[in-house]
Amino acid sequence: MTLNFPQTVRLxxxxxxxxxxxxxxxxxxxxxxxALPAQSxxxxxxxxxxxxxxxxxxxxPGQALVQTVDFFTPLVDDPFTFGQxxxxxxxxxxxxxxxxxxxxxxxxxxxxxxxxxxxERIMRGGxxxxxxxxCTVVGGHxxxxxxxxxxxxxxxxxxxxxxxxxxxxxxxxxxxxxxxxGTGVITTALKQGKSEPAWVERAVRSMTTLNSTASALATxxxxxxxxxxxxxxxxxxxxxxLALGSRVALEIEAVRVPLIEGALDAVRLGAIxxxxxxxxxFAECLVQDFPESRVPDDLRALxxxxxxxxxxxxxxxxxxxxxxxxxxxxxxxxxxxxxxxSGPFVAGAGAPAIILR
Length: 357
Ligand code: CO
Ligand code: CO
Prior knowledge:
The chain is α+β, with helices and mostly antiparallel strands. It contains eleven helices and 13 strands. The model is unreliable at 1-7 (pLDDT under 50). The chain binds cobalt (II) ion (CO) (2 copies). One cobalt (II) ion binds at residues 53, 93, 96, 228-229, 231.
């Protein structure tokens, strides 16, 4: 396939699935990872067997590396914006664990005959966000590929005593989400030519907002027990990991979940990413409705929408939730309390990990 890009090229038309929707489903990935032999390195503090956000490796007393990699296909048409989203998204797992990003390596897949100016603009966009995050791009690697992809491997520093994972949520905690959801359905609507400019503008603003402020405020709050970021597996997929990892059940009030303007419209227009269906298939068996709850179908679908560069899901002691929310709001983080940790998760016997009301 030869791809020649005129100035007006729409990046989203060059790929089959955009952004985090281009990833492998959680179920397939789990199957492969669980088949691999265990490693026995005492300095590996968080490895891939715990489905946490990033790996953590101790390099000395009180100091560890926190490492992650994330790259994907274009989900918006403008190259600079795509680069910004890819960088913001790649940094997110560092912030989710409470780390501070230090260096990044660019990961580039690019068609052989495509216009190199597009790649330059993608990398300029990425660099602008890395600079904002005070993360230095030290190099990268590129391969020829019919479908372009871009992202980063990011290395940060973290105090092993101050690591936040998805295993610490405690019964009674309040659940706070720091960004609205809907980037998957809106960018799918964009690709299908069904989106309104305002929807895409809101989604882009959200996807290019670093989780740095939310992370700094959450990690400064003593009552915060667990943090994860909402990305490709959607709110319900990452909520499921938090529930299983912490052996608790979550109660989520569907109508309180913040939505990006246009997200419900996109669902009603049938802009459903394949990843949404895969997430639903993977997670829905552990989700139950509260007896009296009436969650509308379009809203229910959105809860499984694969997010690109989504917000943090924070589990915080209920007595500290109001203060944390106030601090987030005064820093212009659009955080919302969406539910609580209702009690212990009882494995088996059809018990739910997430209860919707
Ligand atoms: Co993550
Ligand atoms: Co990730």
